[in-house]
Amino acid sequence: MIENQRPREIAAIDLGSNSFHMVVARIVGQSLQIISRHKQRVHLASGLDAHQNLDQAAIQRGLNCLAMFAERLQGFEPENVRIAATYTLRQAQNAHVFLKRAESLIPYPIEIIPGTEEGRLIYLGVAHTQPENGRKLVVDIGGGSTELIIGEDFDTHLVYSKHMGCVSYDQQFFPKDKISAKSMAAAKLAAEQKLESIASKYRKKGWQYAVGSSGTIKAIREVLIGMGCADGIITGKRLCQLTDKILEFKNAQDLNFQGLSDDRKPVFAAGVAILSAVFNSLEIEQMTYSDGALREGLLYEMEDRFRHSDIRTRTADAMAAQYHVDMEQANRVKNTAEMLYNQIEPQPGLAKSELSTLLGWGALLHEVGLSITYPGFHRHSAYLLRYSTMPGFNLEQQTVLATLVRFQRKSLKLEEMPELNIYKRKHLYPLIRTLRLAVALNGQRTDDPLPQIKVKADKEDWLLSLPKDWENNNKLLAADLRQEQEYWAKAGWGLNIK
């Protein structure tokens, strides 16, 4: 009798501004079975100073939590764990210090994700855990940012991330835990001002259900239940009543609500102020709570059976269309780059396999900057890939794409390469060389297929083997390759052609 295969277990960790969360799930048939949840209040955002640097105490609190999580993940393969960092590590100027120290504690890469990507993943987590069909508005108030998403089924239509969270607003409007009507009104007004630029878009788009996720809205719901609102539904009227109750106290530590934990007390008033502003600005009638959030979104996207389409492919295709990329040329360069890279890395590991995928997208999008102007288009391409909203890509992946297209042509000023956290510079060098060769070999932009080309790599020295007499019949290409040899030589690389 064949022994049943053990179900795959996957884990997702959300490094939030207020708390770190980990959820572990088992894949059973066509569903995810949550088998454990872990939460640690870290207060990372409270460690940001005026220069946006994390203090050592906050860094240590975060590292201590990761060390605990690592114990639960012993034996997990890298492809079964995703760690996403949000607002505070996006903002922190010294995030690299935290990431470097974390490497020795937890053997999985930490992805710092953009706010819009955080919103997309939050929506995915909610969509998978909510039974209602129809268009949803999802609101997630974190420690440092608030995400607002409108979507339907598993697709998002509007995604914004605003720099307002219960920790940052607590520090700004309720210092030393002091509560007053004046501070409450100021916090609500500030949040409404943040929402002013997007509110009409959301109201115009509309939704059938408003859903809240994560700790702030969960705490508000539990307090409302404790006040006698048994259904747990949040309404504007109930938020006003809750605000009046909060204002009966002068200090956050004195808040005495059934269902409110001691560690939530300091940031509770700020969270209520932000949610009240969201209700007012978007004219929300009522909101329910969902257990699904960012970490559930990470889990569902990790498992292929639940991935409705590769969001990154759709993002790349949409970007190519937006910037009028010549797709025939883009695919020629992509196919050549993949052919060359497969010779360099015939059996790539997980990390290099991911890099080879990014190489393909970089090749597809290497000419997006032509939509701005031809001179220096490689720099324009890099800027667009680094700073555009690209659903499905984390900040490191966008930085890799930008770096590849930045160095696709002209001189190799490698000292201008940005710092990376998950990958090392040396990991990118083979990709840069590969893309440069693919761009050069397709410089004529013709449909004539390339002959068989072979490449061998010996560290920094590459050998490009071309068919006999091919260069004689392609003199312009031969000149381009000679120029390429000069660029490589100045960077300390070798390109031999035979």
From TrEMBL:
Topological relation to the membrane, as annotated: Peripheral membrane protein
Keyword field: Cell membrane, Hydrolase, Membrane
Major localization class: membrane
Keyword Hydrolase: yes
InterPro entries in UniProt: ATPase_NBD, Exopolyphosphatase, GppA/Ppx_hydrolase, Ppx_GppA_C, Ppx_GppA_N, PyroPPase_GppA_Ppx
Entries under Pfam families matching the protein: Ppx-GppA (PF02541), Ppx-GppA_III (PF21447)
One Gene Ontology cellular component annotation held by this UniProt entry: plasma membrane
Enzyme Commission code: 3.6.1.11
One BP annotation, GO: polyphosphate catabolic process
Cofactors: Mg(2+)
Single GO molecular function: exopolyphosphatase activity
Catalytic activity: [phosphate](n) + H2O = [phosphate](n-1) + phosphate + H(+)
Ppx/GppA phosphatase C-terminal domain residues: 311-485
Keyword Hydrolase assigned: yes
Top-level division of the source organism's lineage: Bacteria
Annotated ranges, domain Ppx/GppA phosphatase N-terminal: 23-305
Subcellular location field: Cell membrane
Quaternary structure (record): Homodimer.
Record-linked PANTHER family: EXOPOLYPHOSPHATASE (PTHR30005:SF14)
Similarity comment: Belongs to the GppA/Ppx family.
Protein known as: Exopolyphosphatase
Organism: Photobacterium marinum
